[in-house]
Design goal:
- By secondary structure, this protein is an alpha+beta fold.
- The chain is 29% helix and 35% strand.
- It contains five helices and eight strands.
- The protein has a six-stranded mixed β-sheet. It has a two-stranded antiparallel ribbon with strand order 7-8.
- A hairpin with a 6-residue loop joins strand 3 and strand 4 (63-79).
- The N and C termini lie far apart (67 Å).
Length: 178
């Protein structure tokens, strides 16, 4: 009986991320286990990704470690021209017969990075936070006083304003009348 599956292991380091030249991740150390299984119509590629990437903090711009872990599947089949069908199907030309999975590994990592990445409270660069606080001074037209608030307070205020949108209150009144 033939074995129709095999397993590969890759260690993606800073050199990999520098060569792939992707904008989201520039550095990291990620282990990828790739299991390739031949099915009746395609090859099934199962990627298990675990490691740490270094991304800039959205607040202070210092590098921060971000853990990444994902399980992704990619199906590859032969055809006449290269094409991507749907989210997880790739068609490669039959005369080529091979596929470079480096970009797919990078994409799976990049897709697992949250939109907002910030240090834990108090871990941001103190010098940068001081400069940010200096520029966050606001004045009120009603008062001649100037006050300073921290970045965390400003973010909390914005989130609170977004949480209580008056339009939703008006829509809730319609539900209450029914």
């Amino acid at each position: 009986m033939r074995n129709d599956s095999c397993e590969y292991e890759f260690l993606l380091d800073n050199l990999f991320f520098a060569n792939i030249d992707g904008p989201e991740v520039q550095k990291g150390k990620v282990n990828v286990v790739l299991k390739v299984k031949k099915t009746s119509r395609a090859f099934e590629l199962d990627f298990q990704t675990d490691g740490i990437v270094l991304v800039p903090c959205d607040r202070c711009l210092d590098e921060m470690e971000l853990p990444v872990s994902s399980t992704d599947v990619l199906f590859v089949k032969f055809g006449s021209n290269y094409a991507e069908e749907g989210d997880n199907m790739v068609v490669i030309p039959e005369e080529e017969g091979d596929i470079n999975v480096a970009w797919f590994m990078y994409e799976f990592i990049a897709l697992n990075i949250p939109m907002k990445h910030v240090h834990a409270p108090g871990k941001c660069n103190k010098s940068m936070m001081g400069k940010l606080n200096k520029h966050l001074k606001t004045t009120s037209d009603d008062e001649d006083t100037t006050f300073e608030s921290s970045v965390e307070e400003q973010i909390e205020e914005v989130e609170e304003e977004q949480a209580v949108d008056p339009r939703w209150n008006e829509l809730k009144k319609i539900l209450d009348n029914n």
